[in-house]
Amino acid sequence: MQIRRSSMTGDRPECPVDRRHKVHRHGSYDRYKGPEGAEQEAVDRFLCVPCGQTVSVLDDQRLPYRSIRVDRLECWLNRQFNGGPEPPAMREVERGCMERALACFVRNSPSLVKALGQIVNHVRADAGSLWRVLGRLGDLGTILRQLQEKIKLPFLWGKKRRGLSLLGTYVCLAAWSG
User: Domain residue spans in the chain?
Assistant: First the structure.
């Protein structure tokens, strides 16, 4: 399971299955820091020994399975849907990552509108309308944290449970039931 660092209280996350269990640092893994793949960064991992579940803690500027930064994606989406300022200069590789992220957000918008229910009441299921309403909740980091913490919408996709996020449904975000 992946969580955002800002959703932790203290120096370690809670066990996703049983809050009474203590999780222990279980090393880390490296992931690309940017779309160019030149630099890597460590992502902390924690293990709940009784449950056998691991929890990875993503920096607040990171997205699951994406090497683009949250602030850069927010600027890109604001430009696409709100006519915001031109995003900072980017290389072609990062532009491609942004375009794929945009396509995922557009494709995922109907599911998000359905899952968010009262939070986005009376919003059309199109990406532009959804982005404008989500913008009222705060910056993209806040939106991602709220999706992780408040929207408990695990559902089956094939045989795997998945959790809902801005750009898709991911196995790593699904809450476990104990």
Answer: 2-173
CA 23, 8, 164, 46 dihedral sign is negative
The single-letter DSSP state of residue 16 is S
Considering the entire predicted model, what is its pTM? 0.81
Please name which of 6, 145, 2 lies closest in space to residue 166, comparing C-alpha atoms.
145
Does residue 160 surpass a pLDDT of 70?
no
The CB-based long-range contact list for 162-169 (8 Å cut-off, 24+ gap) reads 164/111, 164/112, 164/115, 165/63, 165/64, 166/63, 166/105, 166/108, 166/112, 166/140, 167/63, 167/64, 167/66, 167/101, 167/104, 167/105, 167/108, 168/65, 168/104, 168/108, 169/108, 169/111
**Pairing verdict, β 169-170 and 40-48:** unpaired
pLDDT in tens, 53-92: 888 898 889 888 888 999 999 999 999 999 888 888 899 9
Q: Which residue has the tokens 């779309």?
A: 35
* Best CA proximity match to 4, nearest among 113, 142, 138: 142
One-letter identity of residue 95: R
CA 60 from centre of chain: 9
